[in-house]
Structure formats: structure tokens, C-alpha cells
Write a structure and sequence with these properties.
It is found in: Membrane. The protein is of the alpha/beta class. The termini are far apart. Bound molecules: guanosine-5'-triphosphate and magnesium ion (MG). The site of guanosine-5'-triphosphate (GTP) has 22 residues, from helix 2.
């Protein structure tokens, strides 16, 4: 089995036990749709045009703040290649949120969306929310997928849909924020503690900085 390695951000944060909640998230979709790039953009704010296909599975950890609570995100980046499917689906269990991605320059990746949806549903058991990402709109001249097809999908699904680009840093952070917010909202009934923490203010934005720093921030 492929080894699980910490990503750059993961090394620093993975052992950090100082958090209020931990959410396991998974990114799924065909090979080369841009899953790893999406995660690197979110976690490290980096992008590389080189394609290094993921072997098995990897993860990064990022801590965000929501209502003065630390939410630790354990984000798993799965390999899209078919030969790793047995390995990757073993990690679906316990995931609360999924990001399902296709590439607008690759129609096959769009046609595979239903299969990915079925797979995540079959293996995750407790999953709460899934977000769809139509990726790489920055390469519109190579668009293999008609805009209409994307629009039909986005209007038919009952989950959130983002057109996003890791390269141009479009809607990456927003997609993660929406996913975490959706999980928080759906969990608010079962979470103890202060009811004002989760359910009361739905559209509160996530933040990378602790509440104290935010208060002192002059920007
Ligand atoms: P597997 O690990 O094989 O499953 O692939 P992946 O889905 O992780 O794809 P990866 O993130 O490695 O990206 C594949 C290729 O797409 C790379 O060459 C990236 O540079 C490129 N890419 C990723 N995101 C974008 C984007 O938003 N726009 C453009 N133009 N290219 C992108
Ligand atoms: Mg990858």
C-alpha cells in the first residue's frame, strides 16, 4: 500500500492537538483534473504548472477559525488514477465533506462525475456534504465541455457548485469555506456547547487567524 505522507503544511499542523473540532475532507475526481493543485492553492497558496500525478493518497492539515473555535481540517488528496481506487476508497470512511472535481478541458472527467458521486456515497458512511467544482475555466480556449453541460449539472444538483481555478486562485478558498460551513450547520444540532457558536450565524466567514489577532487587525 502506498505510504501516507504529510504535506508541507501537514507536518507543522498534523500533530497539533489544540483544536475544538476536526473535520475530515476528501478531494475526488479523475486524474489530472487538478485536485492536488486545488489543495496546494488552499493550504499553501502555491501553484505549479508541472503535472506530478498523486501516488495513492496524501493529506494536508489546515486550521481555520469559526466563532472563536479552532476547526482543524484534515484534507485528503486522492489519486484519480483507476489503479489506486482500492487504496483511496479505504480512506473515504469517516469523511464528512467531499470536493468532487472535473476539468472543463476534459469531457471524460465530466462524464465520470456520476461514478464519483456513487463511489463516495457507497464508502463514506457518515458523509454530510459534497461540493462540485468545475475546474480550470482559465483555459477557456481548450474547453472541451460545453457551457450548457456544466450549467445543466449545476442546476440539477442540490449541492453547491463552483467554477474554480487553482491557477488563477478563483473560488478555491470560497469552496472550502462553504463546505466547512455546511458541515458546521448540519452538525450544529449534535454539537454541544454554546448554541451561538454554530447554528446562529450561518454566513460567518472562516478565517486563518485566531480571533484575538483579527480583533487587533487594522486592515
Ligand atoms: P492525480 O493526482 O493524477 O489524480 O491528478 P490531480 O487531479 O491531482 O491533478 P493535478 O493537481 O496534479 O493537476 C494536473 C495538471 O493540471 C497540472 O499540470 C496542473 O498544473 C494543472 N492545473 C491544475 N489546476 C489548474 C487550473 O486551475 N488551471 C490550469 N490551467 N491548469 C491547472
Ligand atoms: Mg494529485
Amino acid at each position: 500500500m502506498a505510504s501516507v505522507t504529510d504535506g508541507k503544511t501537514g507536518i507543522k499542523d498534523a500533530s497539533d492537538q489544540n483544536f475544538d473540532y476536526m473535520f475530515k475532507l476528501l478531494i475526488i475526481g479523475n486524474s489530472s483534473v487538478g485536485k492536488t493543485s486545488f489543495l496546494f492553492r488552499y493550504a499553501d497558496d502555491t501553484f505549479t504548472p508541472a503535472f506530478v500525478s498523486t501516488v495513492g493518497i496524501d493529506f494536508k492539515v489546515k486550521t481555520v477559525y469559526r466563532h472563536e473555535k479552532r476547526v482543524k481540517l484534515q484534507i485528503w488528496d486522492t489519486a484519480g488514477q483507476e489503479r489506486y481506487r482500492t487504496i483511496t476508497t479505504a480512506y473515504y470512511r469517516g469523511a464528512m465533506g467531499f470536493i468532487l472535481m472535473y476539468d472543463i478541458t476534459n469531457e471524460e472527467s465530466f462524464n465520470a462525475v456520476q461514478d464519483w458521486y456513487d463511489t463516495h456515497y457507497r464508502y463514506s458512511f457518515i458523509y454530510i456534504y459534497i461540493i462540485y467544482i468545475s475546474h480550470k475555466p482559465d483555459v477557456d480556449e481548450d474547453r472541451a465541455l460545453t457551457i450548457q453541460k456544466s450549467e445543466i449539472l449545476s442546476s440539477n444538483i442540490r449541492f453547491d457548485f463552483f467554477e474554480a481555478s487553482a491557477k488563477e486562485n478563483i473560488s478555491v478558498r470560497q469552496a472550502f469555506e462553504r463546505l466547512v460551513d455546511a458541515i458546521c450547520d448540519k452538525m450544529s444540532d449534535s454539537l454541544d456547547t454554546d448554541p451561538s457558536m454554530l447554528g446562529a450565524s450561518k454566513n460567518t466567514r472562516l478565517s486563518d487567524t485566531p480571533p484575538l489577532l483579527q480583533q487587533n487587525c487594522s486592515c
